[in-house]
Amino acid sequence: MSTIHWTENHTHQSARWHSVNAAPVPRRTVVADDRMKADDAYRQACEGTALLWQGDFHNARQLLQAMSRRIDRRPPRSSTSPSENFHLHRRSSSHRASVLGKLLVLLDDDHTLTLRRAPDVRQACREAYGPSKGPMAVALRELLGVVGAHQWRLKGIDVPALGTRIHPHYGVFAPVRGEYVDLVAHTSLPSAMRHSPATSTAFDLGTGTGVLAAVLAHRGIERVVATDINPRALACAKENTHRLALTDRIEVSGPGLFPEGRADLIVCNPPWLPARPTSPIEQGVYDPDSTMLHSFLAGLSAHLRPGGQGWLILSDLAERLGLRTRQQLLDAIQAARLRVVDKIDTKPRHPRSKDATDPLHTARSAETTSLWRLITTP
Asked: Which GO terms describe its molecular function (predicted)?
């Protein structure tokens, strides 16, 4: 168990250190309060000193924003190479997370935050961290993310394809990009399934919140098996399946990628970018060496019924960023003894695709998301 140490009123104090991003224990920790100036806080954070906040909660949030503005004063480096721009952007994001992650708060027993004007964060922390194991120090930035995730879980995210809301859990990728959901909702089913969807089986691999499994069930498929390697995602998918009264049609299975048996339709929406995630939520975006993509392709033939199809939902953002070529994708499909019979494309609708200040705007604005229909070859 990692521990931070500091001195308060000439007394040595310590607390358990917790970071969902596996950030290292701060080398030095000092107490900070409402008298702390933003310039001093920023300088010390850049030097690696953590600031354990004991002042007003709202003042802590304002200090965090002030530190963020100081980071923004130094414009990030840029390059004419899309791949180098991506890596520079990732490096800049890592620096930001490191500096802002130095402003800490102490959670007491039962995840209570005792700062002045602090909200009740106990339920949000229980959902993200599990039962309390005693006092622990966390980054304020992380705690704000935990609270935000709790609000999303309560309110849910509207999914027009379902006519209802999906409720994401902390650390599970939320279906905020509707284009990939709409592709699964509106692409015609394989011919064998169109005639008898009530006797068909579909797999949803990497289900996350369970949204695509719910869409498939909503389309009349009688049996859907949803899998994931992330225990948080499995719990989230089970809860959403229960909320939607689909427990008789959706089976949540895992942890793992492929379930046992074969299906008429196997759907997979893997992380789109071949890079290393730095936080649990990034596991829905970044897939080192395209491991999940290749695992899906390699196992597809062995799990499809005769006449069945695999649906690969994938953005070409990695190609536009120079992280993967189209030929590499086609070669991987061919190596798995699969054939492309159709490709349905859609353009992004999310706000970042129109944000000209985004460092990756050129690639995002041209991005295309596709549903690749795959069948096995003899």
From this structure: methyltransferase activity
